[in-house]
Amino acid sequence: MASAFEKMDKMYRHQRYFYDLTRKYYLLGRDKLINEMKVGENEHVLEVGCGTGRNLRLLGKKHPGVMFYGLDASAAMLATAQSKIDSANLRNVSLKTALADDYGYRETFGIENPFDSIYFSYSISMIPAWKESIQTALKNLKSGRSLYIVDFYDQRDLPKPFRKILCGWLKQFHVKYPAELIPYLRRLEGDDIGELSMTSIYKSYSFIAKFRKA
Prior knowledge:
Elements: H1 4-12, H2 19-23, H3 30-36, E1 44-48, H4 54-62, E2 67-72, H5 75-87, E3 93-97, H6 105-109, E4 115-121, H7 130-139, E5 141-152, H8 160-171, H9 181-190, E6 194-201, E7 206-213
């Protein structure tokens, strides 16, 4: 049976060359998240499922005094990301091949303290072990700091024909909004693990969730 690494490489071996060009039309809210994230000088910020590194390049340029990290299960995608980061002459971005539910800030990235911020940008809907991935992110996040998620929402306020077409299209790429995601974050909040705030984007097309760890 193919490993998660092999499956992701197979999926993105060719897509990586035109991924950024096509995704900009429907991965809505990524720039809003980048603009709203609280990032301070000399901090360490992780993107889980960084793909081609599009967000990391924008953040790296915007915050030259911050160290950014990205992990992805696809070595092929990371090869493209590294090439683009090198072309942009960014020295504050580090990439590693790893699973979203299996990494450690010290073991994987070689840093001494947990991350100041961690975010998922349209990756949580592609991760079967999304719950475990959130748990792993919280373990690798400093207390009092935030975990961010931007991704597809349930589209309940959108026309049914559009919703059907969109869901059918996303299914081809193994993308599906986890219906239990927001209730799970609310349960974590109820257990005093953190505080949740959430914004719906373009009605219920997508959302941004911020979970501030207690």
